[in-house]
Amino acid sequence: MRNIDAFNHVRGESVYLDDIPVRQGTLYAWVFSSPVAHGKILNLDFSEAQNMPGVVKIFTANDVPGQNQIGGIIADEPLLADGEVHFWGQPIAVVLAETELQAQLASHKIQIEIEKLPVITDPREAHKVGKLIMPPRTFALGNTETAFAACEHVFEGMAESGGQEHLYIETQGAYAFIKENGSFYVATSTQGPTAVQRHGAAVLGIGMSRIEVDVMRLGGGFGGKEDQATPWAVMALLGAALTKRPVKLSLHRLEDMRMTGKRHPYSSDFKIGFDKDLKIQAYEVTFYQNAGAAADLSPAVLERTLFHCTNSYFIPNVKATAFSCKTNLPPNTAFRGFGGPQGMFVIEAALAHAAEKLGMEASVLQEMNLLKEGDEFPYGQITENCEAQNCWQTAFGKYDLPKLRDEITIFNSQNKFLKKGMALMPICFGISFTKTAMNQSRALVHIYQDGSVGVSTGAVEMGQGVNTKMLQVAARVLGIDPKRIRIETTNTTRVANTSPSAASATADLNGKAVQMACETLKERLKTHIAIQLNLPENTPIEIQEEQVWVNGKTVDLSWEKLVFSAFWSRISLSENAHYATPEIHFNPEIEKGHPFAYHVYGTAIITTTVDCLRGTYEIDSVKIAHDFGSSLNTNVDLGQIEGGLVQGIGWMTLEELLYNQEGRLLSNALSTYKVPDIYSVPKEIEVHFMDTKGSKLAIFGSKAVGEPPLMYGIGAYFALRNAIKAFRPAAEPKFSAPMTPEKVLLTLYPDFGSQP
Ligand code: LUZ
Ligand code: MOS
Predict the structure, then answer these.
(1) For an engineered disulfide with 335, which of 91, 132, 263, 713 has Cβ 3.0 to 4.6 Å away?
(2) Does the keyword Oxidoreductase apply (predicted)?
């Protein structure tokens, strides 16, 4: 089945936030934000701004009727700065005017006096002076101390990975108005409707039942709208409350890039030990997470870094410690992979480093140490239906790895300034919110009396195709033509207390709820048939679009006739189902449990060609064997693999966030922040859909596919590194991602510029 949005997307007819027709009297918001990364606000002067044409209201923290607080996990983040500012771009005031331009021009006239305070942007520096978001956490398995003592080879090093701008095509935004009697409606581009509702209610000082949050679809989220869609929606709500007029707030790209948090940069130390057979016996790692100026989701991201610190390898003795370090950057937040990629980059760096010292290919060490059935993760969960080795072997065989290797060797011997490099990247990603309580969902299904069906869930469509999957689930269970079914907007008045659409778990969680609701409705319809036809108990009944079968024989009923007859017999045709993932649990006191419903595995082979005169490169090919279970929709899933892969390659190669000493973002536009475009994506992407066992906790055995493929992109870093070493074997490039063309050049010619 094709993506149900495809037709409207291509015709430009899909509705995003900015396409919603505005009501009469709508005001437009512009956010005035901090011009420094750390300081004390001494004075704010609105006198000139207030008198600018079109200005209706300027509001600050002083105008908040409820709590000026939007912190999710830790209450440490004001909606609007109060007294102090902690990052460049921190919202201080909101200007409301008749047009957006008027609001923007007025905001330029706001005078602010600030006493500058010292700025920290480096996580290790923050750690040194004790600036932590929360106490450190440690995951441990076995005993690394005794294991290292018995190791044949021990290596130590450091690895760093940079942040990443989400660059959703649709920037953050919301549109809010009063319905009546102090009740509000807000349309917002959020992955977490309930987060908007909860914080909106707290800021306005009203009950959540007074705020209806509605989400049609997002022009991309990637984690950037899991938590950080909230402030903009709450500002629009607050503006509506203060002026009694509709308020639209939609960030411009530069504002969005400057004010919102990104993927967490990490700096890490590793120590890895092998026995004489090259089995990893011990691994110690310390992560310094750059959390930015407030907690946001950093504690949960940090946790996932620990969960994935051994990637898809079995290591019997592990000690992993993670510090969440408070710096003067915008609070960093969820980003596809959610800390997992940062942890996985370090173990891959450790393996590459060890291979270099041992004079072998990293793939030898990778293959030797892959997880197998029954192995224990450092957090206590045991692998089940482990596909790590299967994926590796499948990639190896299907894509003829030895031949690929030979081709590269030959190419490199025949070319002086062009060098190819290859790397393998196995992945293992745990599916579930690591916070067990978040793994719940609801679905509301109405069968209308004409036989058409409306489905509401907590799932937010953000281009990932979840609505298509929800529709498939409903159609499959009800046994009817998909055309009858409509997936409604995600709305807190229909489906309440939703978890954000995140953690790759949206289709599983909401799909299971849809499945349950539809099964209940179907059973109810069957009971109705049995009563109407006076059938003996347990008579087999099958409902199909055109025909109903009783005891293998057709009766004079179609779906439409059946539905109407049930309605006329006063039978409920609506159902609300609740699903909570079984089997999962985790005890943070001992850092052990069974946090994930299942794991997703895969292996990618990545090859690249580096121009060793210019430092530029191309990703030649990426060949993947991926563990899909039994894919519910191969089109949607292939799109997720390709998109995730390219996003991961971007993070590892081109995308570089640069801040100056004062904490100001320098790469704040698409002219200076490079993302993969059509010219820099891999020339060839091949994806082999492995028909694996799946999991009964995956919807119809179709495994989660959102985040795992991003981590294939990590292989691009190591492929580039190998190409560099083919040109200059003595090179030992630092493990510092992204590997931009500039860094490639500096690594190829380390002495450049130092000669007289
Ligand atoms: N969000 C969250 C996530 O709150 N918890 C998670 O475990 C998670 N994992 C991936 C992406 N978002
Ligand atoms: Mo996400 S990083 O699953 O919002």
Answers:
(1) 263
(2) yes
Which residue minimizes the CA distance to atom 11 of ligand 1? 503
Confidence of residue 732 (pLDDT cuts 50, 70, 90): confident
| 589 has catalytic annotation | no
Quick check: is 454 in a domain? Answer: yes
635 and 562 within one domain:
no
Residues 569-608 have pLDDT tens digits of: 999 999 999 999 999 999 999 999 999 999 999 999 999 9
Catalytic pick among 156, 707, 732, 742 = 707
Q: Would you say residue 130 lies in a domain? A: no
Chain position carrying tokens 């795992």? 708
C-alpha 221 chain-centroid distance = 7
Average pLDDT, the chain: 97
* pLDDT per residue as tens digits for the range 130-158: 999 999 999 999 999 999 999 999 999 99
Q: Residue 649 in contact with residue 642, Cβ under 8 Å?
A: no
The answer to whether residues 77 and 96 belong to one domain is yes
Q: Are the C-beta atoms of residues 620 and 682 closer than 8 Å to each other? A: yes
Atom of ligand 2 nearest to the CA of 502: 3
Q: Are 586 and 570 in contact (CB under 8 A)?
A: no
Is the whole-model pTM more than 0.80?
A: yes
The residue ranges of DSSP E strands in 246-351, in sequence order, are: 247-250, 266-274, 280-292, 317-326
Contact in structure between 50 and 222 (CB atoms under 8 Å): no
Rounded distance, CA 477 to CA 518, Å?
Answer: 6
Of the listed ligands, the closest to the CA of 504 is: 2
Pick from 295, 27, 9: nearest CA to 170:
9
Structural domain that includes position 298: 266-433+590-748
Q: Is the peptide bond before 482 cis (omega within 30 degrees of 0)?
A: no
Q: Is 151 domain-assigned?
A: no
Q: Which of 348, 359, 332 is nearest to 280 (CA)?
A: 348
What is the domain count for the chain?
A: 3
Nearest ligand 2 atom to the CA of 503 is 3
Same domain, 189 and 319: no
Q: Classify the phi-psi angles of 644: left when phi > 0, otherwise alpha if psi is within -120 to 50, otherwise beta.
A: alpha
Per-residue pLDDT reduced to its tens digit, 672-711? 999 999 988 999 999 999 989 989 999 999 999 999 999 9
